[in-house]
Amino acid sequence: MYRFAICVAFALAAVCPAAGSSPARMVPQRAMPSANGARNAVPPTGSVPSPQPGIKKVKHVVIIVQEHRSFDNVFHGFPGADTVNYGYDSSGNKIPLSPVSMGAGIVPGHLHDDFVIDYNGGAMNGWNLDDSVNGVPETYSYAYIPRNQVKLYFQIGEAYTLGDHFFPTSNGADFPQYQYLIAAQAHRTEDNPMLKGVERMQAWGCDSPPGTTVDVYDRKTGESTPNLTGPFPCFNYETMADQLNAKGLESNYYATAISGSTGSQPNYGWYSAYDAIQHIACIGGTQPCQRSSYWTNDVISPPGQILTDVAAGKLGAVTWVTCVPGSSPATCDGAGSQKWPTDVIDAIGTSTFWDSTAVFVMWDNWGGWYDHVAPPQLDELGLGVRTGLIVVSPFAKNGYVSHVQHETGSLLRFAEEAFGLHTMGATDARADDLRDCFDFKQAPQPYKGPFDLTLLRR
What we know:
Layout: E1 5-6, E2 60-66, H1 71-74, E3 86-88, E4 94-96, E5 98-99, E6 106-107, H2 112-119, H3 127-133, E7 143-144, H4 151-159, E8 161-167, H5 174-183, E9 194-195, E10 198-199, E11 212-213, E12 217-218, E13 223-224, H6 240-246, E14 251-254, H7 278-281, H8 293-298, E15 299-300, H9 305-311, E16 318-321, H10 339-349, E17 357-363, E18 387-392, E19 400-402, E20 406-407, H11 408-419, H12 427-430
Parallel strand pairs: 2-16, 2-17, 5-7, 8-19, 8-20, 14-15, 14-16
Antiparallel strand pairs: 1-6, 3-4, 8-18, 9-10, 9-11, 12-13, 17-18
C-alpha cells in the first residue's frame, strides 16, 4: 500500500461492484433526485433542520479545500488557539516541534492505517512509529510550518474566525474526505482507489480502469476489506448538488480536469469528487462514461476559473474550490500555497457577492503531521486528526477563535440551513451548524481585505 505522498459513515445506497473488463458495467442502483435534471419520487433521506436565526442572509457558500495539514502544523502559535510547542513519542519522550518548510517535498503517510498508528488509541504519540515505517526520520512529522509561509492564514484568521477544533469527518485518505464534502458520507471507504495494488494517479471514480477497487470498512468484522476485493469506486448516493438542483439553485465544483484513466503520473483530477457519483459522472454506468449536464456545466476546470467567474458576476449557491499540487495559480503545496485561497477570498470580498457570502477554508486531512488533540471517535471511521477552519464572511465574528467541535459535516449542515435543504441522513445530521462562528444580528461588515500579498516576500 502506498504509504506516503510526494508534492463512513452511513451507507445510503448500494455500491457498484468491481468492474471486470471494458466496457465496465456498474449495477443500477437506487434512484434519486438527479443533478442532471431528472426527478423521481424517492423520499428525502433526512429532515429539514431548523435554521439558526439570520442564516438566510447567506446566499452563497464557498468551500475552499486545501491539502494535508494538521492544525498544530499550520497554526502553531496562533493567538488564543490550542497549540503546543512539543509532542510525545510512543516511549513518552518529549519531542519539540521543528520548523519544516511547505516546500520540503515529503508529506508523511496519511492513509487510514497511518491514522491508527498516529492516534495510538487516543494517546496521540505514534508519529515516530509511523515515520519509521514510511522511511523518514522518526521525528520528522513533529513539525510546524515557518510563520512566513502561513502569514496570510494568520492575518485572515485574526481578522475573522478561526476554528481550532475542526476535525475531518473521516480518519482516512483523500478519496473519502472529498466524498464527505459533497454527500456527508463515503460508503464507508477508508483509502484511495487502487488498480492491482497500485494507487491510481488519474481518475478516482466511475471512469477508473476496470479492476480498480477501494477499501471499505466492514461493520461485521470490524476490519477493512482487502483492497483488491473492495468495490469499484463508483457510487450512487444523494449529493448536495442533487438537492440544490431540485430547488433550482446552482452549485459549482472547481477542480482539475480528468485527463484520462491510464498512466501513473498524477494530474490531480482525483480531487473531482463528483467523478465517483454514477448519476452525475457516468449515466447508466457503462464506460466510456456519459456525463450528466451537471458535470458538463457545473464541474469546472481549471480551479483558477473561479477568479474569472466571480469577476464576471457568477457564483453559485454552493461552490467547492480545490487546489492542485505544484500548479499555478491554484497551488496547495510549497511556500506560496497560502496565496491561492487568499486570491479567492479577495476576489469574493471585493465583489458584489461579499454581503451575502460565507467562505470556509479547510484542509482535507492531517497529511500525517503531528497534532496533540485527540479527535473524538464518533463512528468506526472518524473523526480524523484535527485540521484548521477559517471562516470569512460579513457576518463572521471578528478576531474570534472557535473552540467548539466542528467537522466536515458542519459545512454541509450550514448550507442545508441556509438554503432550506434536508439533511442527507449521514454525518451532516449529527454535525453542528457553525452558529458560534457567526453574528447574524449585525449588519454586513465591510471586507477587511484585500489581504497583504507582500507578506509572501518577507
